Amino acid sequence: MSGSRPPLRDDLALMDGYHSPQLDVPVRLNTNEAPEPPPDGFTEALAAALEGIAWNRYPDRSASALRAAIAAAEGEGLPVGIDADQVVVANGSNEVLQTLCLTYGGPGRTAVTFEPTYALHSHIARIAGTRVHSGARAEDFTLDLGEVERVLMSQRPAITFVCSPNNPTGGAESPETIRAVLAMVEEVGGLLVVDEAYGQFSAHSALELLDDDRPLVVTRTFSKTWSAAALRLGHAIGPRWLGEDTSGVLLPYHLDAVKQVAGRIALRFAAEMRERVAHLTEERGRVATALEGLEVDSWPSEANYILFRPRAVEGAELWQRLVDRGVLVRNCASWPGLEGCLRVTIGNPGENTAFLGALAASLA
Dihedral sign, CA of 46, 51, 57, 63? Predict the structure, then answer.
């Protein structure tokens, strides 16, 4: 028998994977994680709940209790609430995106992104066999509605991705812009996916536009504001037909019992989450103000990170100098239009102070 290695799919062989360095340094500010673990009560409640899991049985296939809890939490404050049948859950928001691409994309269909933006929108779409066409953002990295119209009317995509706040640039789109893009998406018969992984840090949300007659889906994650990146839990909220459409794509029992229980428990700590978001927003302001006094250019952010570019040193060189001083940030040079740019996650006050000190020394 031959021990030869089977060939990859031709299209996958041309793709690079999505990687973010995991280095052992004192201050890690490169993956937009929450700087604090969940409240102590979360761990205690989860440990108690694990005793009630029937380990020999499959989990609830529809994750009905978790979906109901997410609907209640995300619908709070909206003019019209959210029902559980509007919620789809998966193993992180990336699996949510994959599910949407497998459901509405695929061979012969096109997905559209506007660069620079979250790299996995295009990467996951291609893995799902979907052609990707990328338009350009304006100089300030917001959406240019003229460019959006040009791209959508020429490509007539099945899926249009909008990340707001945008990763890695940090800016959020106005409600008026989202409405305008949605109208164009409706005209071409596609689906608008608004990625709000950092939505809790922004003043506006596309959740307010949800309606069964609108082809709009909003994706969110537990990895950021809920301090649960290790949990790998994300969800989509959309029209009531979303669950029916995606049911043929999601694998049976894809969401394990521990994850379902942990997600429900995390949602009990909404007050703590809002308090942490407020503290991070204050720290974001402190870091942004400090950056104005250094030899860097930075962009306004409505997320838990800030994009910046050094003026007198190469971005890759500055990244290494920061690592040498025990601080890890994200090198964004591989994103279109972000040559020389770095992105720093907002950490706790001590981490942010350490970053600013290391940055000042590295620029000296």
Answer: negative
